[in-house]
Design a protein that fits this description.
about 350 residues, alpha+beta, Arc Repressor Mutant, subunit A, 2 domains, five-stranded antiparallel β-sheet, two-stranded antiparallel sheet
Length: about 350
C-alpha cells in the first residue's frame, strides 16, 4: 500500500490549524491517525491523505489550504483547466496557466521560461507567513508537473529541480517524488524539462477533464508509488542510450539487469508497457527534430527506427493528430528567452 511521510501531512494540518480549523475529525473520517500526524511520526496511507486533503481544501474554501494569506477559492483549479483545455500545445497551456493564476492571485506567481533547449516553470509565494511553506512549494511544483503530464498524456521527464529552501524532513523521498534529486538552497523553486515537450498537443477531452477534476488537485500529490520507478528508468535509458531506436524489450531488460519477462510484468504493474514508453520517446524526439533541425523526414524516420518515411508519417499522425510536414512548416526559430508571467 503506497504511503506518505506524516511530516508532509503534518505541515498541511498545521496550515489548516493556523486558520482556526480543527483537523482531527476529518482525518479520522479518512482513516488517518491525528496523534501520529501532528507529531510528525510514521507514515500514512497515500490515498487517505489525498482524500482528506481534497476535502479539507473544499471545506476551507481555500485551495492553498491555509498556506497563503490570500485565500484561493475552491474551484479555481477547475477553472484553470477549462482555460487551458483548448490551448492546442503544452507551450500555450503553460502560458495560459501562468496568466490565469496571475489574474486570480496576487500572492502566487507562476513564471514560465523557455531557453537553451529547456522549459522552466518557477513558482513563488510573495506574501509573508510564519508557516513552514516548503511542503506547499513542493505541492505546487508537483501539481504543475503531473497536471501537464496528464494534459498531454506523456510523462514529462524532469531534467532538474531547484528548491529555494533547505531540504525538509521528508527530503529523502525526493527521488521517488520527482524522479530526480532536487538541488536545495537555491534562489528560486523551479523545475526544468526538455523544451521538445512544449510542442506536444493537448490530448484531453472535456469528458476526461470531468473525471480528472473529481480527484484533482490533491490527488496529484499522491499519485505515485515508491516502487514505480522502472518506467522512469526506461525513459532515462531512451534519452541517454547511443542508439535508442534500436532498443527492443530484451536489450533494454539486459541493460537494466532484468529478464524480459520481469520487465514486462513490472511495467504492467506500473500501468504501462515497453512499446508505449518507446513511442513516447519517439514522439518527443520527432517533434524536437522537426522543429530544431533541417533533417529530412526520411532521415528522422531512420533515426527513430522506422524503415520507411511513410510508416513514420502514419505513426506521427496517430501520436499528434498532425502530419510531420505541417509541424515543420509551423515552426519558428526562437532566439533568446521567452518569459510568460504576471505583470
Amino acid at each position: 500500500m503506497p504511503t506518505v511521510p506524516n511530516t508532509i501531512i503534518q505541515a498541511h494540518a498545521l496550515a489548516a490549524q493556523s486558520k482556526g480549523v480543527t483537523v482531527e475529525p476529518l482525518m479520522l473520517e479518512y482513516g488517518l491517525q491525528p496523534e501520529a500526524i501532528l507529531a510528525g511520526q510514521g507514515r500514512s496511507d497515500s490515498l487517505g491523505f489525498g482524500r482528506w486533503l481534497g476535502e479539507q481544501w473544499r471545506s476551507m474554501d481555500d485551495e492553498t489550504g491555509g498556506f497563503s494569506t490570500q485565500r484561493m477559492k475552491a474551484g479555481t483549479f477547475a477553472m484553470a483547466n477549462h482555460a487551458i483545455l483548448g490551448a492546442g500545445t503544452l507551450r500555450r497551456a503553460l502560458q495560459r496557466s501562468a496568466q490565469f493564476y496571475g489574474l486570480v492571485s496576487e500572492a502566487l506567481v507562476i513564471q514560465f521560461t523557455e531557453t537553451h533547449g529547456l522549459a522552466r516553470l518557477e513558482v513563488a509565494l510573495t506574501d509573508q507567513s510564519s508557516l513552514d511553506r516548503r511542503v506547499f512549494i513542493d505541492s505546487l511544483l508537483i501539481i504543475w508537473w503531473r497536471w501537464f503530464s496528464w494534459l498531454v498524456d506523456t510523462p514529462l521527464q524532469l531534467e532538474r529541480v531547484e528548491l529555494g529552501f533547505v531540504a525538509p524532513p521528508y527530503g529523502d523521498e525526493y527521488p521517488q517524488i520527482y524522479g530526480c534529486q532536487p538541488v536545495c538552497e537555491q534562489t528560486v523553486s523551479a523545475f526544468y524539462f526538455n523544451a521538445a515537450y512544449l510542442d506536444l498537443p493537448v490530448q484531453r477531452t472535456v469528458e476526461q477533464l470531468t473525471e480528472f477534476l473529481s480527484q484533482a488537485p490533491a490527488f496529484l500529490l499522491t499519485h505515485y508509488r515508491r516502487h514505480d520507478q522502472l518506467a522512469q528508468q526506461l525513459r532515462h535509458l531512451f534519452s541517454t542510450h547511443e542508439h535508442p531506436a534500436a532498443l527492443d524489450q530484451t536489450a533494454a531488460a539486459t541493460l537494466l539487469n532484468l529478464s524480459a519477462s520481469t520487465l514486462r510484468r513490472r511495467l504492467r504493474e506500473e500501468g504501462t508497457g515497453f512499446q508505449r514508453l518507446k513511442d513516447q520517446w519517439r514522439k518527443t524526439r520527432a517533434i524536437y527534430l522537426l522543429k530544431s533541425t533541417d533533417a529530412s523526414l526520411h532521415h528522422i524516420a531512420q533515426t527513430l527506427g522506422f524503415s520507411e518515411a511513410s510508416a513514420f508519417h502514419r505513426a506521427f499522425q496517430g501520436w499528434t493528430g498532425e502530419n510531420p510536414g505541417a509541424v515543420r512548416q509551423r515552426s519558428i526559430q526562437v532566439t533568446g528567452d521567452r518569459i510568460y508571467q504576471k505583470k
